[in-house]
Amino acid sequence: MAVLQGSKVYRDRGGRRRRNMESSGRRQRDTLSRRLSPPPEADHFLHPIVLRAEELKQEEAEPVIVGGMVLDIHATPSMPANPGTTTPGKVHYVLGGVARNVAECMSKLGAKPFMLSAVGLDMAGNLLLEHWKSAKLSIEGIQMRHDIETAVVCNIFDAEGELAAAVASVEAVEKFLTAEWIKKFKSKLSTAPVLMVDANLNPPALEASCLKAAKSDVPVWFEPVSVTKSSRVAPVVKYITFASPNEDELVAMANALSCDNVFCLIRKDDYRNFSTESLFQLLKPAIWVLLEKGIKIVLVTVGSNGVYLCSKGVSALMKSGSKRTYCGGLGRQLYKLVSASCPPNQFSSAVESEGSSHLFAVHFPALTASVVKLTGAGDCLVGGTLASICAGLDVLQSVAVGIAAAKAAVQAVANVPAEYSLATIADDAGVVYSAAKVLCLQSKL
User: Fold this and answer.
1) Residue closest to 293 by CA, chosen among 234, 206, 216
2) Cα torsion at 208, 214, 220, 223 (round to 10°)?
3) pLDDT digits 0-9 by tens, 345-392
4) Chain segment 280-319, per-residue pLDDT in tens
5) For 76-170, where are the alpha helices, taking DSSP H only?
6) How much is the pTM?
7) Rounded to whole angstroms, what are the CA distances from 338 to 43, 63, 385, 401?
8) How far apart are CA 421 and CA 34, in angstroms?
């Protein structure tokens, strides 16, 4: 996941048709109808089933997020720590988990995510569930049992706020978020505008989620979580629409998909010697492996060099990433504001050349931020991007929003800001979007 610090991007760890409404003149129906009506600008993004209101009960499309809900413990010393003894500082409980953070971010930008996860009925689980219910988000898909030990991650930071060490106890996600539990919600998966899975899932659960979504033509977003777990993409790669690795996870995924360790990591100390273009050239062969294996869109976060957005051809990036996009009031506002600040014709010249294009890559710069903490913002990059896709924005516009959402996250104490200013998000997205640059438009590598 990408996190912004100053002008840099760092890494941290941690998508149903409209709800049934009677068509009578009852006041409740009228109120809901006004609230759920889509903006005129986004009509062509709606699920293409239109009947007379008195003949059809409509449902709101809910993006489905599958993965971990985690209680993060953040320990930050007030002075350099000495091994073997305690150090004065601050310890905070922070609601976390890659999938949970992504879903919360989406909810604050106008989407209504449906979460599939597993937590225990213990202190950590109760904290997570209380917050989820207070945000008026559904807990129907969250398995809750006394024999589950809620996932907990302890992060230890240095005096500068950089992650120095961490211990993760997340076995609950792999053990209890099973394929059998996920299959109970197959109707949600088959009608979602988008599905996001994180790599904390065990292989059968990943397979069950991705297969059901792919059979229903639902785009799937794979979040690698870590270098070790990113290799879990291999059995499900043919179902994946989006993937969001950092450079190390990209290399691990490319090696897993090519069945050979042919790609090597780039030393972080060497980054200062690379321009944006030269770093892309180093990463391009690994990116190409992911695209050749079937992933449609690869979003790579690369430290202070920003974000590379890559696909085969241009058109995939210049249309909405989902066929069932729909959102409520906040989403409509987001769509209007971002459409104004990020005009969709910026890359029209690239579209004209698509007939000869094979690999298309766009670089998005990082944003300057006043950093409070470094964790969680990368998840907000994914959450902001997914919320924008659900609102009907194209993929290029959506990534710009994701970077803006990540900037807001590093300026907050929690992993996800308490609230977002949509005007600020749109302005920041406009800055990123206007500075985006086409790096690659070629017929072959």
Assistant:
1) 234
2) 40
3) 777 666 555 544 588 999 999 898 888 877 788 899 999 999 999 999
4) 999 999 999 999 999 999 999 886 678 999 998 887 787 6
5) 98-108, 123-134
6) 0.83
7) 16, 20, 12, 8
8) 23
- Cβ–Cβ under 8 Å, residues 70 and 153: yes
Mean pLDDT of 88-117: 95
The candidate with the shortest Cα–Cα distance to 316, out of 296, 300, 299, is 296
Instruction: Report the alpha-carbon distance of residue 239 to residue 369 in Å, rounded.
Output: 36
Q: Report how far residue 445's alpha carbon sits from residue 442's, in angstroms, rounded to the nearest whole number.
A: 7
Alpha helices (H) in 368-421, listed in sequence order: 377-391, 395-410
Q: Do 385 and 322 meet the contact criterion of CB atoms below 8 Å apart? A: no
156 vs 159, higher pLDDT: 156
Greatest extent of the chain over all pairs of C-alpha atoms, in Å:
71
Q: What is the DSSP code (8-state) at residue 371?
A: -
Which of 257, 207, 211, 208 is CA-nearest to residue 231?
Answer: 257
User: Per the structure block, which two tokens stand in for 74?
Assistant: 């953040």
